[in-house]
Every structure is written in structure tokens, then in C-alpha cells.
Amino acid sequence: MRAQSKQKLGVVGQRGQITLDSNLAGRSVRITKIDSGRYLVEEMSLVPTSEAWVHNPKNKKIIAKGIDSLKKLGKKSLKNASDLEDFMKNVR
Q: What is the band of 7 on the pLDDT scale with cuts at 50, 70, 90?
């Protein structure tokens, strides 16, 4: 399904500024120069560096496996360090 495109004419300010829709106010965007006179503006979600490891495909699998292991554990708890070590062996 193709999004309906809207066109608007504008003028680039003296400092290279352009005005976009007000619904983008305060949001992060990536601007890619496609070729001379053509740019692609994409809305972005930025992830803090301290949380970026969660989005690594390898880590996503480990996290999913850990969640599954916790579900299997049910109401039981990890009572000591050796329980935790056994649990972690099953996760990785």
C-alpha cells in the first residue's frame, strides 16, 4: 500500500532551514541526500547507547530464550547463586 504523498512548496532559509509538518515538531529525523537536489527525510526512533545491546539479533535470541526459561520456571524462584548459574547455562 502506497502512502498518499502531499506536496508543498517552500523556500530554504539563509541558514539552510526548511519547515516540515508540525506533527514532526520535536521528533528526530534522518536526512539522506539522494542526488543533486533530492533528499529523503525519514522519522527516526533513537535508542540510548546503554540500551542498544537489546536490539542486537544475537542478544534478542538470548533474551527470548531467557524469558521462555523463566516462564517454565513458573512460581519457583532462584534461591541462590548456583540456581542462577544453572539457569544461565540453559539460557545461553
A: confident
Alpha-carbon span 15 to 73, nearest angstrom: 59
Cell of 53: 545491546
**Could you report the per-residue pLDDT of 27-79, keeping only the tens digit for each?**
999 999 999 989 999 999 888 999 999 889 999 888 888 878 777 776 566 66
Q: How far apart are CA 77 and CA 43, in angstroms?
A: 43
Residues 86, 84: Cα–Cα separation, whole Å? 5
Q: State the pTM of this model.
A: 0.48
Classified as helix, coil or strand, 35 is strand
Domain ranges of the chain: 49-91
Residue 29's beta-bridge partner residues?
43
Residue 9: left (phi > 0), alpha (psi -120 to 50), or beta?
A: beta
